[in-house]
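Researcher: Quick test of sequence recovery. C-alpha cells follow.
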C-alpha cells in the first residue's frame, strides 16, 4: 500500500445516490432484537438483513393479512 494517495482527480460515484435512501422508521424493540440475533448468526449487519427481508417481500409481492377487530 502507498503511504499517500492522490485523490485530486477523483470523482464521486454518480450512482451512489441510487443505491440506497436513508429514511427513519420506528420499529418495536422485539423486532430489532430478532433481526440483531439473526444477524449475529449469519454475520451481516442487522440493517442489511432487514433490507434483504423487505426486498424479498417486495420481489415476491408478499402481502400482509391484517384483520382489525
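Model:
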Amino acid at each position: 500500500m502507498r503511504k499517500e494517495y492522490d485523490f485530486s482527480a477523483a470523482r464521486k460515484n454518480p450512482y451512489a445516490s441510487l443505491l440506497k435512501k436513508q429514511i427513519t422508521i420506528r420499529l418495536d424493540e422485539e423486532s430489532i432484537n430478532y433481526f440483531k440475533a439473526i444477524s449475529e448468526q449469519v454475520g451481516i449487519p442487522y440493517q442489511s438483513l432487514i433490507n434483504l427481508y423487505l426486498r424479498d417481500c417486495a420481489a415476491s409481492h408478499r402481502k400482509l393479512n391484517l384483520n382489525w377487530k
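The helical segments are 16-19, 29-42, 46-59.
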